[in-house]
Amino acid sequence: MTDVIPAPAPVRVPVRDGGSFPVRRVYCVGRNFADHAREMGAQAPASRADRGRPVFFMKPADAIATRGEVHYPPGTADLHHEVELVVALGRDAPPGVLARDAAEDLVFGYAVGLDLTRRDLQSAAKQAGLPWDTGKAFDESAPLSEIVPAAAIGPLAARRLSLAVNGTERQAAPLSDLIWDVPDILHELSRLYALRAGDLVFMGTPAGVAALVPGDACEARLDDAIELRCRIAAPRVR
C-alpha cells in the first residue's frame, strides 16, 4: 500500500559511545517522590505497604528534545521544570505481567530528562476533573540527555538526581527516595501495556519544581554519570 503522506522519521536519541536509540513510546510516572507528592497537595504513602498503585501518563515520542535549546511553549504563563531519571528499554517484555526480578533484564540504559509542565493548564484541568494532557504532552516537553548503557551506571539507589537553573540548585534527591523503583514501575506498567524495545520511562521528580522563563539555563545531572544541559528559548514565532 502506498502512503498518501510522507511517513515521519522515528525520534532517535544519541547513545554514549555511538549509535542511536529509536523511541517507540514515552511513559511517565507521577508522584514518585514523597516530597514532591506533598508539595503538589497529594498525600504521600506512610510506608511501602501504603503505596497503592503508581500514577501513569504519557507524552508523544516527538515531545523528546535532544538539542540544547527548548522553546517556551504556547498557551501558558507558568512553565515548570521536573527533573527525572529516564529508563530506556532495549528488549520486549514477555507476554503477561512482568515479574519484578525479570524487569531489569529489559533495561538498555539510562538518561536524565526534564518533564516540562504547563502548570497552569494542568491545574485548571485537575480542578475541573478533566484530563491534563495539554499540561504535559506538548512539543519539546521532554528534553533528554544522551542514553548511557546500564552497565556504565551500576546500582541506582546511591545515585543522586539534581537540577540547577542558572547555576542554583533547585531539585535534588537520592534515587533511594523513589517510592516505586525501576523494577516496581516496569512491573506495574506491564499490567497495563505491552512494553517494547524503544520505550522510555520518566521515573518521577523530587520536590523543588518551579517556573522557568526564556533565557534560563538548566543543568540536570545524575551525579557525574549523566548530564543534560539546555536553555529555554523565546517562544517560536508562529
- The helix content is 10-25%
The first-to-last residue Cα distance is 35 Å
Strand content: 25-35%
Instruction: Give the biggest sheet.
Output: 6 strands, mixed
Under CATH, the topology can be stated as Fumarylacetoacetate hydrolase, domain 2
Number of domain units: 1
- Total strand count, please? 17
Strand order of the largest sheet: 4-3-15-8-9-12
Give average pLDDT, whole number. Answer: 94
CATH H-level superfamily: Fumarylacetoacetase-like, C-terminal domain
The helix-and-strand class reads alpha+beta
CA radius of gyration: 17 Å
Overall morphology: globular
Uncertain spans, ≥5 residues at pLDDT below 50? none
DSSP helical segment count: 5
CATH class category name: Alpha Beta
What order do the helices and strands follow? Answer: EEEHEEEEEHEEHHEEEEHEEE
Write the topology of this structure.
Blueprint lengths: L11 E3 L5 E3 L3 E5 L3 H6 L15 E5 L4 E2 L3 E3 L7 E2 L2 E7 L10 H4 L3 E8 L2 E2 H9 L5 H4 L5 E2 L4 E2 L10 E6 L2 E7 L7 H9 L9 E3 L14 E6 L3 E8 L5
Parallel strand pairs: 3-15, 5-11, 6-17
Antiparallel strand pairs: 1-2, 3-4, 7-10, 8-9, 8-15, 9-12, 13-14, 13-16, 16-17
